[in-house]
Design a protein that fits this description.
Distance between the termini: 48 Å
Radius of gyration: 24 Å
Number of helices: 13
Strand content: 25-35%
Bound molecules: NADP nicotinamide-adenine-dinucleotide phosphate
Low-confidence stretches: none
Helix content: 25-40%
Mean pLDDT: 96
Shape: elongated
Structural class: alpha/beta
Length: 428
Amino acid sequence: MKPPLKIAIAGLGTVGTGVAQLLARNGDLIADRAGRRIELRAVLEKDRKHDRGVDLSKPKWHGTFRELAADPGIEVVVELIGGTEGVALDLVKDALSAGKHVVTANKAMLAHHGNELAALAAKRGVALAFEAAVAGGIPILKALREGLAANTVKRVYGILNGTCNYILSQMSDSRRDFGDVLKEAQKLGYAEKDPSFDIDGVDTAHKLALLAAVAFGGAVDFKGVFVEGIRHVSALDIEFAEELGYRIKLLGLARLTADGLEQRVHPCMVQESAPIAHVEGVFNAVVVEGDFVGRVMLEGRGAGAEPTASAVVADLIDIAMGRAGPGLKNPAVRHKTAPMERHKGAYYLRLMVLDRPGVIADVAAALRDEKVSMEQMIQRGRGPAGEAVPVVITTHETIEDSMLRALKRIAKLKTVREQPRMIRVETL
Ligand SMILES: NC(=O)c1ccc[n+]([C@@H]2O[C@H](COP(=O)([O-])OP(=O)(O)OC[C@H]3O[C@@H](n4cnc5c(N)ncnc54)[C@H](OP(=O)(O)O)[C@@H]3O)[C@@H](O)[C@H]2O)c1
């Protein structure tokens, strides 16, 4: 057997502890598959006393990231501290510069600094591996790089944030509103105290930018991602969606269009018959559409100590076997960003209107004037005098810009009582 691969874990929190436990429990079978052992030789962590349910008496405990990056006995640094900048970024830069391979689950850091880090890894001839940064335990990057490598990717999309999917699934099952379900998710530990990164779509956007860079080649373009979260999705919209044969999901979607790379994160109306419509709770799923393979969907746990550790260790096995690269093929190549105003798609609109003669005609006129063609309309009951009733309209394919202009005109109508709600309809 070849000499062991000597690794260090920086950050023994949820994922770091999971990785240490996995290596301890499955060490023999990993050695068998990789042809060498993966040995935890060092750690970087502030709290030494905490019982992590795994024997950590053998590895060396480093006090600072500089000490770890300079440790000549370490070949791979596994960065599991987290954070866009700070210690995580400094450590990764130093480790790569020192000629060490890096494995990380840190999507925020890579979304912002991935190009620079991948270029550094390529320059030093070492690996920068980040399977765990996109959809946790789902091996989607490996699938794109290996099993699907023969295809031109037409489109890639997915449910990339378990917190949002849990909230939307619960809203649909229990017919409760967003605020109620969010509070419950926080109590159960499915949502953070400050949930904004998740519910405002930022976490999904981080992952989408990485996924798109791998699927379409070229640089990570986080700034080019259009992002809209789920705060405005209401129980009423979920009810209407179901009446129309849709489910509402927060998706990250990317494709190359004639206008450039389109990357979007927003709530989507997804037809009931699409496999991804049935991915529930904290589960994630990623769909790749390839020109020869057609549609491939991978579903699994997108977070948690064990699934994320599974992805981290898969990267370590690749490094042990000498088959890992710098992470991004062409970090210097930038695709043009496709402007969101030119996005073409169908739309769901919900208005709260006063039930008066001529209201629908005014709304229809606004749509007609902006060349938006209606597909269906649902008008719910008759409200008591002075009370608004919901009207739902779905449109045929149109340009986002026209839709937004029509929406502005509709919002100004005296009989329209609340800000109109718009959700994009995706044909998947
Ligand atoms: N959790 C998941 O399911 C999951 C899934 C996919 C990706 N990720 C990514 O994986 C990374 C780690 O996430 P996590 O959930 O494991 O976070 P976590 O539980 O907060 O763990 C981070 C650990 O790093 C330690 N740490 C912080 N600053 C340090 C420093 N200067 N030196 C040494 N140790 C330091 C923390 O110690 P203290 O607690 O004492 O500060 C903590 O033990 C993040 O980038 C995250 O986005 C997580």
